[in-house]
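About this split. The held-out portion is used to measure sequence recovery: a designer receives only the structure tokens and must propose an amino acid at every position. Recovery is the fraction of positions where the proposal matches the reference. Here is one held-out target exactly as it appears in the evaluation file.
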């Protein structure tokens, strides 16, 4: 089923995706507990991917996604920070504050990838629970 159909019908996120998201959140807690805030996003990416792979889960890092517009194909339209189990997109940040453009970015990535669930995780917070944003389309 395409994401447009699911979105139009307001179909709930399947339990399997919620379980994957829970494992991602648990792994983010472990990484943040060990490292804390203040590092580069790339460090958190490598460490989170490592934690997820230990679970074991399929994790792709810096996945190039092509974009097609009006017959023009951009081979690397954008890169996903993490794609977990081919179904949950994870966008990582290490910024002072999540801005609306960050949420819009994740929503666009979800739409273009045909996915419904994304996690926007900002590691630059004192408490990681305050840096986790669940985005569903």
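Reference sequence for scoring:
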């Amino acid at each position: 089923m395409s994401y447009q159909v699911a979105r139009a019908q307001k179909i709930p996120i399947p339990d399997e995706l919620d379980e994957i998201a829970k494992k991602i959140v648990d792994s983010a807690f472990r990484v943040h507990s060990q490292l804390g805030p203040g590092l580069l996003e790339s460090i958190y990416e490598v460490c989170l991917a490592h934690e997820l792979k230990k679970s074991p889960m399929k994790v792709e890092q810096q996945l190039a996604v092509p974009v097609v517009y009006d017959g023009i194909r951009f081979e690397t339209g954008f890169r996903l920070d993490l794609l977990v189990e081919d179904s949950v997109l994870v966008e990582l940040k290490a910024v002072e504050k999540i801005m609306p453009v960050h949420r819009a970015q994740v929503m666009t990535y979800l739409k273009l990838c045909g996915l419904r669930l994304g996690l926007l995780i900002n590691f630059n917070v004192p408490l990681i629970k305050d840096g986790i944003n669940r985005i569903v389309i």
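Annotator remark: The chain has four helices and five strands.
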